[in-house]
Amino acid sequence: MKKLFSLLVVALLAVSLVACSSPTTDDQGGDTTQGTSEIHVYTRDSSSGTREAFEDAIGLGKGELTDAASETSSNGDMATKVGEDTAGIGYVSLSTDFEANNVKPLQFEGVEASTDTVLDGSYAMQRPFNYVTRAAGDYESDDKEQLVAAFIAYITESEEGMAVVESEGGIVDYTNARPWAEVAAEYPVLEQDNSGITIRTAGSTSVEGAISAALAAFQPLAGNVQYAMNQSGSGDGWKRVLGEEKDGANAADIGFASRPFEAEEDVSGAMASGSFCQDAVVVIVEASNALENLTAAQVKDIYSGAITDFGSLE
Amino acid sequence: METCFDVKNIDLFYGDKQALKDVNMEIYKNRVTAFIGPSGCGKSTFIRCLNRMNDLIEGCKVSGEIIKDGLDIYSPKQDIVDLRTRVGMVFQKPNPFPMSIYDNIAYGPRCQGLKDKKKLDEIVTTSLKQVALYDEVADRLGDSAIGLSGGQQQRLCIARCIAMSPEVILMDEPTSALDPISTSKIEDLCLELKKDYTIVIVTHNMQQAARISDYTAFFLLGEVVEMDETDTIFSHPKDKRTENYITGRFG
Amino acid sequence: MLIDKKRVKRNKALDKFFRGFFMAMAILSSSFIVIIVLFVCAKGISPFLPGYEYGQVDLISFLTGSIYRQDQGIYGVGFIIINTLISAFLALVISFPLSVLTALFIAKIAPKKLSAAMQSVVELLAAVPSVVYGVFASGVITGVVEWIASLFGITTFGGSSLLAVVLLLAIMIFPTLTSMSITAIRAVDPNLEQASLALGATKTQTNFKICLTAAKSGIFAGAILGLGRAYGEATAVAMVAGNKLFGPTFNPFDITRTLTSTMLAGLKETTGLDYDIRFSVGLVLIVVIFFSNWILNMVKKRIGRNSVA
Amino acid sequence: MNRLVKDNILKGITYIASALSVIVLAAILWYLVSNGLSLISSDLIVGDYYATTENAAISNDYIYDESAIGEYTGEGYYSAKWGIALEDITTAHNDEEISVVYVDPNSPFMHMNSLVSGEDGMALSLTEGSSIQNIYYLDEAGETVFLSRVKMADAQNTIAVLDANATGIVSINYESIGGGIRGSIFATLYLIGISLLISLPIGISSAIYLHEYASKNKINSLIRQGIDTLTGVPSIVYGLMGVTVLFPVTQLAGATSTSILLGGLTLAIMLLPTIIRSTEEALIVVPQSLRDGSLSLGATKSQTIFKVVLPCAVNGILTGVLLGIGRVIGESAALVYTTSTVINDNPTILSQGTSLSLMIWSIMSGEQPNYELASAISLIILVIVFAINFIVKIIGKRLAKSFV
């Protein structure tokens, strides 16, 4: 026992010695003398819609990402980690609370991300939040079909609905917005008691905040219609309203995706589909970092591993 | 004199190790039979054969016959549970169950399905009286049996055994963990009980064997060296080994 | 005679019934492992079979690979196995001496009241859910790691690192190790201690030389259990591992990737091969745990020869 | 070295080791308390998670009279014109809301009718503590203006806009704060109940078989090995197994989706090794002499087990129960797939729901991790764990007393 013990103590010391003596191994073969200038690249796991939008915008091909990147599990996780790492760089949704996470949003191609720059298209790193409904006539009842249509109109046409989406961080264009009272007049189903009807949603988790707020606000406007949200990822959005799971245990009435629908996700059969708001993806660094602006090419170089320290960005 | 157990050619193995070699003896009814011998000689093993407690030990094989009431207790026809209700046992260390004194004694009858409160009361009282414990515990039958002294606990275990009205009581060194006063009480009890029961006792204490037993068997290395009336064994042993043991030259 | 024949018959039938019932339950319990293994195997092996719908994966390069990238379609878990072994083992190295000493303190050295208090401390630590450890790790341990790293002038990935994983696991397996050790030490026959004291050894000498030696088999069993927990811990580890894309990781301040963090990363949104391969990773994890237990049990048999507990 | 000095050094080391564990526990508690304590309130514990939204218009028979509206000097921003005081709050879920702190009895907001179809214009009054989502008001020109949540910005601005621009109130959309975890607490308790109800009888029976009946043969050692290996299966694998293999079983009971029942079944299997192991350890401690004593009195084996062995082992079995409860409360990975992460205010056995730990996991792995709320829920979990430990220990002592 004694031997075992001393062995363990020695091992413990050895570990701490190794810990003390070894400098960060340099994976890129770059310069590490200036500890803080080496860039720590953060990304999301490959199933993330934000990552897809980000990589599309900077032109980073599938698989070109540097091996040295660290994967984070969510938008908030990314913000937290970059905020704690003076050498970190990452990307998050515009709705993120930058200040609270101690991160600084960077301009992209010289353009600052804001509602205006996203809407006029000058800020390029953006993605739509899309919806798709079941096919016309493929609902449990006509009333439900009407309610789904009314809800879609609520979030895409009415000032009130857009305001709710906006309050949850979505970027909406009020240009063609009308008062809800006007929109509602087109849907007589709203006048009756709908508490026996449940609208089911599926798909992207990124839209969860906006859609649950919109549904909660829509509920009293639509005769207490019930709702059940089962968000499990963009991939399930189309699948559960038009695809192979549309009649399964997890079937839904409206599916969402935080990216454009793919070619194999044919939305032509849907009663309605389109985007209800835009989201901007913003490159962030830790708050004390002196960087202000990055070009698409620079971001691509950083994420592909061609640039490994902040010094060479000047 | 009636025979209680007729033991014929018993061999017993623990795995490969032979613990009993060709044991033959007769045990008589309403007599006290004592087994003596040095540690590891097989006397405890043998007494556990008489109510088949050895069945509980893994890898234990018994051959030969032990005839009781015309039936070999090792034959498949013999019901073990039934055998044990007729052949009770008291162990080396007192082992009262962690229950009340009353429940300890009522345990056996209850296991047989006796529920009648009156009958149970009667059994408990008579059993305790028989072991002369009743006066000491009459006012606290509901108390835990663990609180009794060692000697009391052992008498309780005997009472528990008597409560089943067995034919035979096997005692495996019942006094080895007790003080002299408790020991003498148990010894008196044995003499008292042999009127109604057949008693088989394993003991290390040769005086004890001499005091209470009618017959004595001397075990050595798994064999019965000699068995005879106690007086004969202690005064005129036939075998040299018996004599050596009794006179304290070994063991 | 007391015996009520009818009742006795019923008792016997009941006895038989219960024997059968207990046995059936035991078989049921152990058959769950068969169900689980079959299920994980069926799912986990499928990517390596020809005709797999998303394109067959090469088993050898899966097991020996040093890059795990869904985006490139390269799945190699070789380095992840090494990382998992390293982090679990280092956690054990840190936690083991501390927990054995704490156990000795609680079981033998501490005054009665302090001992009871310490026992509750260990029980409380055992009761803390693993997600809570995860929250604590990403809030506090990462900060500590970052601070340590800054002493050497190293910047870390916000504290997410091998070291953070090791510290987290060391804390998480501590209660398991300690309570098993306490049980083992308490089970040591007091006669042994008295014999040691009677030979003129001091109380402390007896504690260290007799109690620990006699209890080592039980203590080692605790270590095996703790190591198992360290291998299998998922949610908390995933919060601080940093999920490196290639490896293996030997630098304590570099990010790492364990089998469990790999299984969890992006699990919610993924489909196809990337989903199925997680079962393969799970299968690898089960095999790793199984082998490690097997080896440790052999070691335990050797060192436990003259142990009582 | 002097023996005494050496002894003291060794002793000292054990003191230091123990102190370290105390420090770790203290650090965890300190972290949780400093982050989460401020969020814990009765609303959080007993409240609904989902806000109830109301949409209400000012009654037709209400006549607005500014002079009738009284003074208010409490906290928040007060509009003497409309008789309503508002303040900015941040909810436990980190949402910023404009909350009502006071409504004057003569305020229009006290005399409203529901606009929700199906509620027949039920009378409503704005309650303190609810949060305002939007307001429709009349401007100077008599036009209806929509004041959205974004345009309201904060409490001060809302009051300013209403005071400056509004000549009348048309309708208001408001909701209760929500965010309570009562449903999750119940779901957790259901999970504990279901999993113990199933795993205790199976586990204890298995342990009895293994320890009391099983002889050393191949089949039994296979059974034992199987159970031992179950210990090593990571909990996430149990979850994946549960949703595939056990889902059909719950379907027989009427489940249509993942459910608390499914989670409970999965956890029951996960608990088996723990329960079996601790029961076996308890059985080992029961002296063989008691079994011998019982058997020698003609008791059958099963009588011996139920009447003598199990009562003696009850404390050890309770330890297993405690460990089991701890695991159920703490489990998250296995539940992600079996109960779903849907928060349910009124969970039933066949509905989806989320346990407290799973809720923490969702909060931490969501788009924006909320350390404060996670810490608060962790604290609540710890309190529940302590309470259950305490109760089980008391039961154990009672039982032990009646036997010994």
Describe the protein's architecture and organization.
The complex is a heterotetramer of chains A (314), B (251), C (309) and D (404). Chain A has two domains: 38-121 and 281-313, 3-Layer(aba) Sandwich (D-Maltodextrin-Binding Protein, domain 2); 127-278, D-Maltodextrin-Binding Protein, domain 2, CATH 3.40.190. Chain A is 33% helix and 19% strand. Chain A contains ten helices and eleven strands. Chain A has helices spanning 2-21, 49-58, 75-84, 115-119, 142-156, 159-167, 180-184, 208-221, 234-239, 296-304, and strands at 40-44, 70-72, 88-93, 103-105, 107-108, 126-133, 198-203, 226-231, 254-257, 273-286, 293-294. In chain A, strands 1, 2, 3, 4, 6, 7, 8, 9 and 10 form a nine-stranded mixed β-sheet that branches. Chain A is elongated, with a radius of gyration of 24 Å. Chain C folds into two domains: 5-48; 59-302, MetI-like (MetI-like fold, Orthogonal Bundle). Chain C has helices at 5-45, 59-64, 78-109, 112-127, 130-151, 162-186, 190-198, 203-232, 235-240, 259-264, 272-303, and strands spanning 68-69, 74-75. In chain C, strand 1 and strand 2 form a beta hairpin. Chain D has 404 residues and is an alpha+beta fold. Chain D folds into three domains: 3-39; 51-175, Pdz3 Domain (Roll); 182-399, MetI-like fold (Orthogonal Bundle), CATH 1.10.3720. Chain D is 56% helix and 12% strand. Chain D has helices at residues 3-36, 42-46, 149-152, 155-165, 182-213, 218-232, 235-252, 260-285, 288-296, 301-330, 356-365, 371-403, and strands at residues 53-58, 77-79, 84-90, 96-103, 112-114, 123-124, 131-138, 144-147, 168-175. In chain D, the strands form two sheets. A six-stranded antiparallel β-sheet of chain D has the order 6-5-1-9-7-8. A three-stranded antiparallel β-sheet of chain D has the order 2-3-4, covered by helices on one side. Chains C and D meet through helix 1, helix 3, helix 4, helix 5 and helix 6 of C and helix 1, helix 5, helix 6, helix 7 and helix 8 of D.
